[in-house]
Amino acid sequence: DMTLIDSHPGIAAVLGEINRLIDAQIDIPTVIERLGPPLDQLLAPWVSSNQMDRAIDLFRALYPDHAITPSPELPGAHAAMQLVRDHGAQIVVITGKFQSNAKLHLEHLQLPYDVLRGARWASGKTDALTQLQAEMYVGDHRADMQSAKAAGVLAVGVSTGGTDATQLRDAGADLVLGSLTEFADWYVMSHNVLS
């Protein structure tokens, strides 16, 4: 969410359906502004604990039909991923999104990837980065930068989500880009320097 794809329209559609089906009264604009944390944390202000499991199950069930098509690729995502692959590196996608839904997005938008790890947040991302021996992690949230630093990898922030450049730097980002459209120039320059 908000690193590779703009999932705002899709998630808004799913939340609208949940509101209709269980009368949850979720404040959709507020949730959309806070994307990143796990779903139960995002929905907690509007969904009671005894309704949470049902809301999460509904979210996952409704997601494929309501959220994939309306969620576009963010500018530069495909080019950045293809550039990494062209330089002989593996593309690892580690996301808080439910893995099967993340896969649907990647396939719908034809974004190249080699490994996908879903339902990962905070230490879950750190563990995946460590296990997969990643060299860098690109993300749009403070927790992404913290996870990358905890795993000892280069933390690259993009301010395309709800976290601005200052917040990303304060969370440990080694580099902050305005969007993935800036990734190619930086990656080629850094790759040439490191070669």
Summarize the structure.
The protein has 195 residues and is mainly α.
What does this protein structure show overall?
This protein has ten helices and five strands; from the N terminus they run αααααβαβαβαβαβα. It has 195 residues and is mainly alpha-helical. The strands form two sheets. A three-stranded parallel beta sheet has the order 3-4-5. Strands 1-2 form a two-stranded parallel ribbon. The longest helix has 18 residues, at 49-66. The two termini are 32 Å apart.
Features:
single chain; 195 residues; mainly alpha; three-stranded parallel sheet; two-stranded parallel ribbon; 10 helices; 9% strand; globular
Topology:
Blueprint: H1 8-22, H2 28-33, H3 39-43, H4 49-66, H5 77-86, E1 92-94, H6 99-108, E2 115-117, H7 123-131, E3 136-139, H8 142-151, E4 154-158, H9 165-170, E5 175-177, H10 183-194
Parallel strand pairs: 1-2, 3-4, 4-5
Radius of gyration: 17 Å
What is the N-to-C succession of helices and strands?
Answer: HHHHHEHEHEHEHEH
Helix residue percentage: 40-55%
Termini separation comes to 32 Å
Coarse shape? globular
Given helix and strand content, the structural type is mainly alpha
Mean pLDDT: 95
Low-confidence stretches: none
Number of helices: 10
Strand content is 5-15%
Strand count, sense and barrel status of the largest sheet are: 3 strands, parallel
Major sheet strand order: 3-4-5
Q: How many individual β-strands?
A: 5
